[in-house]
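Next up, a specimen:

>
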Amino acid sequence: SPSTSVSSGINAEYGDEQLIYWPNFTIHKCKQRYTKIIQYLIRMRKLRKKNVKKLVSRDLKMEKRESRREAKALAAAQLDQSIEKELLERLKKGTYGDIYNINQDVFEKVVDQDEEEEEEAESEFVEDFDESDLEDIEDYELEMETTESGKAKQKIKVGN
């Protein structure tokens, strides 16, 4: 580019003045190194102007650590739930007698929830229906259509 040639020409002359007593090979190597650095800086400027996707590294060590912590937390939560269920079962059975030191409202609430769950589990399901049931449904639909069409005819007659 023209701006780099001008600036490199000026800097090259300055470099010649400063490196007058050095061997030509060293001067040449310094100029090459200088132009390489300038080109590197120009490329960096161009890349900054572009919107390039930035690559982000993943910290696998941290991810593994967090996944182990999550697994331990889930195991602890399941243990707590199983202990709570066991204690509630013992409480319902009256294993320990009247030595409880709990809030009666909380106990009744838990018992009510359990009863609701049992009621939901006891709901009835309809058995599979046979082809005869399908014929009954079709007959019912036909009856409904005829009654609706009959009502429509009656309405027309009444209107006239």
Observations:
- DSSP finds five helices and no strands in the chain.
- Residues 60-93 form the longest helix (34 residues).
- The two ends are 97 Å apart (CA to CA).
- The mean pLDDT is 76.
